[in-house]
Amino acid sequence: MEHFFSPCPRGLEDALAAELSALGALDVAKGEGGVAFAGPIELAYRANLESRLASRVLWQVGSGAYRNEQDIYELAYGLEWPRWFRVDRTLRVDVAATRSPLASLEFATLRIKDAVCDRHRAVGGIRPSVSKDRPDVRVYAYLSDTHATFYLDTSGEPLFKRGLRRAHSEAPLRENLAAGLLRLSGWQPGTPLLDPMCGSGTIALEAALIALDVAPGLKRTFGFQKLSWYDGQLWQRIKQAAQRRAKPPAPAGIHARDNDPAAVRLCIATLESAGFGGAVVVEHVDILRGTAPAPSGIMVTNPPYGVRMADSPALAAFYPLLGDALKQRYAGWTAFLLSGDTRLPKLIGLKAARRTPLFNGAIECRLYEYRMVAGSLRAPASMSSSQ
What we know:
The structure is a single chain. The protein is built from eleven helices and 14 strands. By secondary structure, the protein is α/β, with parallel strands linked by helices. The strands form two sheets. Strands 2-3-1-4-7-6-5 form a seven-stranded mixed β-sheet. Strands 10-9-8-11-12-14-13 form a seven-stranded mixed β-sheet, covered by helices on one side. α2 (42-50) packs parallel to α8 and α3 packs parallel to α5. Mean pLDDT is 93; it is low at 376-387.
């Protein structure tokens, strides 16, 4: 039985724990910013391929108590790095800590790197090279106040990089957070879905992956392919089973809209480059003027807020109009709006049924749920309690 840890956007720990359990993970335990779990080594293959919410899958290779940097060096030196990856693989070491007594994490990182390289040299006479930008192998260490835990990364590039985008545009929403918003909204394929401020199309793309049952990692490579225990035939069997399960692109009741023609073009390009152009209806429509694409459905969107729109007067004018549009044009819909601006509930003029804390990178956000009741501009009082 192997032990793993998957970091994720803060606020998605419960959802990730449920997702990993569904993939066969055992001993699932939520922590702040991630989930620990256990299973056979091949679970790393499946979790990397299938997880929509994890940022990485880290394989735990050792742990122990420490008091200083020398203790950490000795713990790291005692691990069997030459058994896990070849000396010609390039290396990177990253360290994170909570309440660590050490004066410098940079020095701790250097000592772990030295320990890994020294162990390789002791076994084979050669030290591996270091690469900070595109390493073959990533070593992670987490330091608590008394213990150090060491991991080998099985993901390589972070998992929110699906390998589906041709254009390298900077999206304001990472793919695993977009998938998390869909999970928290309760949306299921078959229910009409709308992102009325779609930008580059991240939410629509993640929805298409879910609707077509496409594993998010099908078109990329992973860090475990550089580790010594990698079994190419097993990986191909797992990958081919996921490929057979995927449905061909077809209309899926997913709608992406934006009032910016350039964003609409980028969204179309994003979906077409991923091979999902036929699954999503993309339109140049202003949310303040458009009508709902169906009598009822779920809206999930990441509207502009202070970080993206520096013009506060424009922002203050937009949100009351957005609230009016939701009440007047989307009766029967439930809207989920992500915002890092705490003024949103006051400006939009609607009573949120639920506020879910989330982090978009380093930005603390809330996912606000608004239920637009058909035939009324105001949600009943019973709808306003948290659930």
